[in-house]
Design goal:
Elements: E1 2-6, H1 15-29, E2 34-40, H2 44-49, H3 53-56, E3 59-64, H4 71-84, E4 88-91, E5 104-108, H5 112-115, H6 126-143, E6 148-151, H7 154-163, E7 172-174, H8 188-200, E8 209-213, H9 222-235, E9 240-245, H10 249-259, E10 267-271, H11 275-283, E11 287-290, H12 299-306, E12 311-314, H13 317-323, E13 328-330, H14 335-346, H15 350-358, H16 360-364, H17 369-380, H18 384-390
Parallel strand pairs: 1-2, 1-4, 2-3, 4-5, 5-6, 6-7, 8-9, 8-11, 9-10, 11-12, 12-13
Helix pairs in contact: 1-17, 8-11, 17-18
Length: 399
């Protein structure tokens, strides 16, 4: 079989982690298949570094400068894969080629844009954002008419079936994200940068911090969370919040907001961390705080568990599913709820913390990139009997 894969998101957050982990595994395991992989010009070297020389022999790389969510994408992408004659095409996000009518597999990670403002367009006027939502709905409609639809959690599957009654449940496959334990820093400069950060911000055992990692799009709820914590730090000045993520437009906006706050010295930004630096930032934190209003999965939950962190999440379906009973939850729109939850975790004694962390492996064993790659290959080939055996029975969401 000749399999096409649109990997242009490979260096992005979220979807990028998904591609980085399942694509190399699928290529290495499908020794009889040929692959056509579409990449941005600047990502080719990185992609090659993920594969063995033997696997690369079965991959044809198509380079392009065509970005996602563009009109040009809708013309160029289907042309490329039609020309290459692939038997099946996997698009790991909902930016599907509307004019591609052969076998298409689509991964739907979430439906956030249907219910919440997301992305830069949401801050730049009603017209632009409305046009973006129209484009999203068109692409989503095509995605939900795919040969096979992969979703990363039961909560996404449930939402699709509730919103789109015409979608058949039998055509939706829950192939969860896995997790990879973040590596230790590879170089002394990486470690030194974190040490210097802690020293400059006066972070220590007696001045602990809460940790947030991820993008800062509006639905991540960091704007409101910063307001809540600004009040919290008035009564608890020894605590602070460290925010790690991509140094982009949204980080700049939040930094400008923080400057105007009474307790701005309690907020610290660590832009563009490496995976090794994230390892240190996770492990040194008092707790990991995830205040999002909407998610399709909870990759940071698994990363935090793998590094033995206490976790406080907003009480949304995806976090409840992935975090189960091993996390604490709160109402992300309520300052009182956040305050009570923080105080509860801070008050935990050593034995209570150790007991909770000790049970993390029970949850982590449910999430494996290897199993996701294996199941996805079976779905490509229509081996539905084997798919049913391979699909994991996930734990019921924690109420």
């Amino acid at each position: 079989m000749k399999i096409g894969f649109d990997a242009r998101f490979i260096k992005q957050t979220g979807v990028g982690r998904y591609i980085q982990n399942i694509l190399p595994l699928m290529i290495s395991r499908s020794s009889k298949d040929q692959w056509v992989v579409l990449l941005l010009n600047e990502d080719v070297t990185y992609f090659k570094s993920l594969l063995s020389s033997k696997s690369l022999q079965r991959v044809k790389i198509i380079k392009t400068n065509v970005r996602w969510h563009s009109l040009k994408e809708q013309l160029v992408v289907p042309y490329i894969f039609y020309k290459e004659g692939v038997g099946i095409l996997h698009v790991p996000y909902i930016n599907v080629p509307i004019f591609y009518f052969k076998k298409l597999v689509t991964t739907v990670h979430d439906l956030t844009i249907l219910t919440h403002k997301t992305g830069k367009a949401s801050t730049h006027g009603y017209l632009l954002y409305s046009l973006k939502r129209v484009g999203f709905r068109l692409a989503l409609f095509r995605a939900l008419n795919s040969y096979k639809i992969l979703v990363v959690s039961n909560s996404v599957k449930t939402e699709i079936l509730q919103r789109f009654s015409w979608v058949k449940s039998s055509n939706l496959y829950v192939t969860t994200n896995g997790y990879s334990k973040l590596p230790l820093p590879k170089s002394k400069p990486e470690i030194k940068e974190v040490e210097t950060f802690f020293k400059d911000k006066k972070i220590s055992k007696n001045r602990p911090y809460f940790f947030y990692v991820g993008n800062l799009h509006p639905h991540k709820n960091m704007d409101k969370t910063v307001d809540f914590l600004n009040n919290y730090f008035k009564k608890h000045p020894n605590f602070s919040l460290v925010i790690a993520g991509k140094n982009d437009y949204f980080m700049t906006v939040l930094q400008q907001k923080v400057v105007s706050l009474d307790n701005n010295k309690n907020f610290h930004f660590f832009p563009n961390p490496t995976d090794g630096q994230l390892n240190l930032l996770y492990r040194c934190s008092k707790l990991v705080l995830l205040p999002s209003l909407k998610e399709g999965f909870g990759l940071q939950v698994l990363e935090a568990m793998s590094l033995n962190c206490l976790i406080l999440c907003s009480k949304i379906p995806a976090y409840l599913e992935v975090g189960s009973s091993y996390c604490d939850y709160y109402d992300a729109k309520s300052e009182k709820s956040l305050t009570l939850a923080l105080n509860k975790i801070i008050a935990l004694n050593k034995s209570s913390k150790e007991l909770r962390i000790k049970n993390y492996p029970k949850n982590l064993k449910n999430y494996s990139w290897s199993e996701t790659a294996k199941t996805t290959l079976l779905i490509y080939k229509g081996s539905l009997g084997q798919v049913k055996k391979a699909l994991k029975i996930l734990p019921k969401p924690y109420k």
